[in-house]
């Protein structure tokens, strides 16, 4: 069994107040620690993915703040204290400073992160 902390997980995306830290925790699952400042919108960096949305599923918990998740079926709001499942086909926007931890399949998440890095320059 493996474990990680926010401090142990390397930063893989950083800019504009956004920070994403990720670490493999078991070979095919990645733990991620995300921070989005109010107003951060991941929609533009998802352009070019299928449906212009993140195609990786995530299971997690909102530690602080709230965010809007846009999907092809509409929008949902997630708030501090909520556990969540985000199926493929979503793009988050922070409604206030937001932090969450999530767990995702490593390959799918890596593919999305590499796309976002290219989009961010």
Written description of the protein model:
This protein is α+β, with helices and mostly antiparallel strands and 121 residues long. It has a single domain, classed as Jelly Rolls (Sandwich). It is 16% helix and 46% strand. The chain contains 2 helices and 9 strands. The strands form 2 sheets. It has a 6-stranded antiparallel beta sheet with strand order 1-2-3-9-4-7, covered by helices on one side. A 3-stranded antiparallel beta sheet has the order 6-5-8, with no helix packed on it. A hairpin with a 2-residue loop joins strand 5 and strand 6 (74-79). The longest helix has 15 residues, at 106-120. The chain is globular and about 35 Å long.
Short description:
Helices cover 16% and strands 46% of the residues. It is α+β, with helices and mostly antiparallel strands and 121 residues long.
In terms of topology, how is this protein built?
Blueprint: E1 11-15, E2 18-24, E3 29-36, H1 43-46, E4 58-64, E5 66-71, E6 74-79, E7 83-86, E8 90-94, E9 98-105, H2 106-120
Antiparallel strand pairs: 1-2, 2-3, 3-9, 4-7, 4-9, 5-6, 5-8
Give me some keywords for this one:
alpha+beta; Jelly Rolls; 3-stranded antiparallel β-sheet; 6-stranded antiparallel β-sheet; 2 helices; 121 residues; single chain; globular
Unreliable residue runs: none
Q: What structural class do the secondary elements suggest? A: alpha+beta
Within CATH, the superfamily carries the name Jelly Rolls
Global geometry: globular
User: Order of strands across the widest beta sheet?
Assistant: 1-2-3-9-4-7
What is the number of helical segments per DSSP (H or I, 4+ residues)? 2
Taking Cα atoms only, what radius of gyration do you get, to the nearest Å? 13 Å
Number of domains: 1
Secondary-structure arrangement, i.e. CATH architecture: Sandwich
As a percent range, the share of strand residues is: over 45%
> Count the strands?
9
CATH topology: Jelly Rolls
Task: List the helices and strands in order.
Answer: EEEHEEEEEEH
CATH class label: Mainly Beta
Relative helix content? 10-25%
Q: Taking all residues together, what is the mean pLDDT?
A: 95
Main sheet attributes: strand count, strand direction, barrel closure: 6 strands, antiparallel
